[in-house]
Design goal:
By secondary structure, the protein is α/β, with parallel strands linked by helices. Helix content is about 20%, strand content about 25%.
Length: about 280
């Protein structure tokens, strides 16, 4: 069954406050893969902190979540939507980097850990250290709160790891001066918030069928690729197809910008579905 979007626009009350903006869940056709797309802009009251993307994959063993969105209310809302799709336990959470718009939703890990059992987090060392400080109650070993969630940390640092018989290759990139990770699975790669990528990491991205990469705007930016930088990166890697994401309204109108792009390079958009 293909669900193009679920629970799109109705305001929803959560224990952390209302989620009133559209919050669409999209499904990749013929796959148990779902994703949520944030809005453009700086997190604030006008967008309720919903400025990042997240997703999840339903496997035979349970649910694998990628990033946790930017507020506890949004994290709670994503869990509600996971429950609309499946009753399988949430077993793994993969975290790309520690910025709040990708991790603040982790505050809601406690109720589903109590229901589903231990949850395995996958992240690099810097994310692990940051989470241990910000969510100390989760990881405390002394005077531990009896209702704290049962979480284990699995640290990766550019080495390949396996999730449900799939090899995941982390791709180390710099978001300004902050080390973060994109990921390659088979001949598909997803990279966002990138400003610079070393030749060593670029070598891990050869022979791609699909590359998704950020292109914030046309003007230079201190922590993100602008359009020219993204296109130079694509030219270097030569994937079969590329999609530009994490774009702002300062890039321009979709139709006009699309005319300026090289062959096989496209602007991503809300609701875009890729078939492989």
């Amino acid at each position: 069954m293909f669900l193009p979007n679920l629970s799109a626009a109705a305001a929803v009350d959560t224990p952390y406050g209302n989620v009133t903006l559209p919050f669409e869940l999209h499904q990749v056709p013929n796959a148990s893969v779902y994703y949520i797309i944030g809005t453009s802009g700086v997190p604030g009251a006008n967008n309720e902190g919903h400025t990042s993307n997240a997703g999840f994959v339903v496997t035979d063993e349970g649910v694998v979540v990628f990033d946790a969105l930017g507020t506890p209310a949004l994290g709670y809302r994503m869990i509600q939507q996971i429950r609309e799709v499946t009753d399988k336990p949430i077993k793994k959470v993969v975290i790309s980097h520690y910025h709040a718009d990708h991790t603040a939703g982790l505050d809601d890990v406690r109720p589903f850990s109590q229901r589903d059992g231990q949850v395995q987090f996958y992240c690099d060392k810097s994310v692990s250290e940051n989470l241990r400080e910000r969510f100390a109650y989760i990881f405390a070993t002394e005077n531990r709160y009896a209702g704290a969630p049962n979480v284990s940390l699995n640290i990766f640092d550019s080495q390949v790891f396996e999730l449900k018989n799939k090899l995941i290759q982390p791709i180390e990139v710099l978001h300004g001066r902050l080390k973060i990770f994109g990921f390659r699975i088979d001949k598909f790669a997803y990279i966002t918030d990138a400003k610079t990528i070393s030749q060593r990491e670029r070598n891990k991205l050869k022979d791609l069928d699909i590359l998704i990469v950020n292109a914030l705007r046309k003007e230079p930016h201190p922590t993100h690729f602008n359009l020219d930088e993204a296109l130079e990166f694509i030219k270097d890697l030569k994937p079969k197809k590329s999609y530009l994401t994490h774009i702002s309204n300062r890039l321009g109108f979709h139709k006009e910008v699309s005319k300026e792009l090289p062959a096989n390079v496209y602007l991503a958009y809300d609701g875009l579905v890729l078939e492989t």
